[in-house]
Amino acid sequence: MDTVFLKALVIIFSASAVMVYVLHRLNVPSIVGFLIAGVVIGPYGIGLVKDIHSVEVLAELGVILLLFTIGIEFSTSRLGRMKKAIISGGGSQVLLTIGLSSASAYLLTERVEQSVFIGFLIALSSTAVVLKILSDRGETDTPHGRMMLGILICQDLCVVPLMLLVPILSGEGNSIIEVMLKMGKAALIVGLVLLSSRWIVPSVLHKVVHTRSRELFITTIILLCLGIALLTAEFGLSLALGAFLAGIIISESEYAHQATSDILPFKDSFIGMFFVSTGMLMDIGFFVNNFFKITIAVAIILVLKTTAGLIASLIAGAPSRSAVHAGLGIAQIGEFSFVLAVTGKASGLINDNFYQLFLSSSVVTMMLTPFVLMAAPSLSAWITARHLLAKAGRRRNVSEAEGSPRKKQDHVIIIGFGLNGRNLVRVLKETGIPYVVLEMNSDTVREMKKKGEPIYYGDGTSRELLHKIGLERARLLVIAISDPAATRRTVSIARHENPGIEILVRTRYVSEIDDLKSLGANEVIPEEFETSIEIFSKVLHKYNFPNNIILDMVEKIRSDSYTALRGGGLHKSHLFEKYSWLPDMEIDGYMVTEGSRLVGNTIAGLQVRKKTGSTIIAVRRGSEVHTNPSPDFSIRAGDIILFTGNRDNMNAALTYFVTAR
Fold it and tell me: Do 65 and 263 touch, CB atoms closer than 8 A?
């Protein structure tokens, strides 16, 4: 047996584990650890792994599985809602980046074809890096997360035409007509794949699930993922885009969540391989000898891509802060640029020296991305609040809030119109409490305005906009958005502008509780702890704890900012031993049939408690339920008698009812 490949895997996983652990202790993201591990053990490092071809295969599989799981989280309807981000944002970003990069490159190369090709390379961002970070931080559904995702989807779609244009730039042939035909074929296959999600795939999965074979289900899911990826690749599309389409197809079925849980362990392992293999491409010797050039190249790439991403996001309708955040998030070079670079090198558009310069710069931008995204909330808030975009942002916020509720008093301001915001609005509407909603999804705002909702487009971190919707006159501010940085800033601004307002915040993160409280929030509700409270309340109820005691415990936990669930602990005296004397009671039922001796008898006449030890607590007659029936209540055929007691007594009661004929 050839163990070379197995040895390579052992080395890769060992180096990755050590590097990720060490950097984790220093609070450095795992992506950086994988990339550094690849640089160290690769052929240009200490050379523990020399043949990286097999590793690249596993890495590509990792990207496929990543895009597949991301696709499962979406659906065709959700993509339809993102069309502005994909078409306007993504299209503008690709064109702007190519234009700016080509113009900059022409100043150095003075060759149009080579400059345009360099623009192609810089235009693409790393789907694997950005989505991994957004998923880990829970920000895929934030305004900036949706914008980044839309731009990345557009970039992946653009890989096909960019690849087809390379031969034209190199002068190797391929007319524009041939390119258009190939692009038409690619569009056709995408359409056919998406259409199959409506009929073929749901039917296949339904039949597979009915076999109740988990092995067959997993095999079918992997087959769909890899098969559709391969099919799209055969028509000139990327494997990753095919996997994304496969995920969207699965998302249309009711089996999406099960598919995600089955694929997830494979995805995380292979994604690590992708980052390791990317690091292996970097030549340390070249990096050291050309450090100054690489530093300048990285700076130019980051500035050009951030600028293009910012402008594109604004064109797509994103608020200023989200536009800056999105621009910073997609400022790195993408994995598909490596594929383009190899093609360009083979076509003579770039030489070996430029190829290594590009690879080194690309890997460095990937390494910097986690740190850039960590700093992005603060940077975007600083830029939009005080500098470049401050005036434009203020003008836009004021114009968006025209017609806002200037006369409302003692109302509730709701930031975010997601599931929590919508549910709160339903309750406020029923109770007649006045409210105003602030939402950053322009499509949602337009839709709900037509229905008469007092909803306005804008960013809750805008001081001017908060005053436009009556912050100084409101009684309560509810923040229900999935953007931790924006949540913190909104709380801080609201508390400063209106010291007396009550601020209620929903957050996904336990770590946010203390920070938000210190910034001025009165109540912080972490989703995971509220779920825990609901679960333990149900459990205690099953153990017959009195409801008032359960409610007291819940109130105590909430009033202490969930300290008991964050490691503070609960006193045992409040728990099981105090109520262990409660009987083990259950409820059972018996339907009275025609001819039963029970018919015509009264509750008192049956003497159920005296003869069996059980107690009748209710009688259901048709749609009516008679609780605690009086002693003279007469039993009829069809009645359902509900009774309680311990299990032995209830068994005796069932026997008594059956034999009473």
Answer: yes
472 shares its domain with 377: no
Does the pLDDT of residue 621 top 70, yes or no? Answer: yes
d(CA 267, CA 68): 9
Cα–Cα separations (whole angstroms), residue 200 to 76, 206, 232: 16, 10, 17
Higher pLDDT, 456 or 23: 456
Closest CA to 56 of 335, 337, 355: 335
The reply to whether 80 and 171 lie within a common domain is yes
Residues 627, 639: Cα–Cα separation, whole Å:
13
Residues 137 and 254 in one domain: yes
Q: What is the pLDDT of residue 578?
A: 46
Distance (Å, rounded) from C-alpha 538 to C-alpha 561? 21
CB–CB of 307/321 below 8 Å? no
Enclosing domain of residue 599: 586-659
Q: How does pLDDT run across 4-59, given as a tens digit for each residue?
A: 667 777 888 888 888 888 887 777 778 888 888 888 888 888 888 776 666 666 66
Cα distance between residue 287 and residue 285, in whole Å: 5
Q: What is the Cα–Cα distance from 197 to 246, expressed in whole angstroms?
A: 9
pLDDT digits (tens, 9 = 90+) for 523-532: 888 776 666 6
pLDDT in tens, 284-334: 888 889 999 999 999 999 999 999 999 998 888 887 888 888 999 999 998
Which structure tokens are listed for 156? 């992946």
* Separation between Cα atoms, residue 539 and residue 526, nearest integer Å: 20
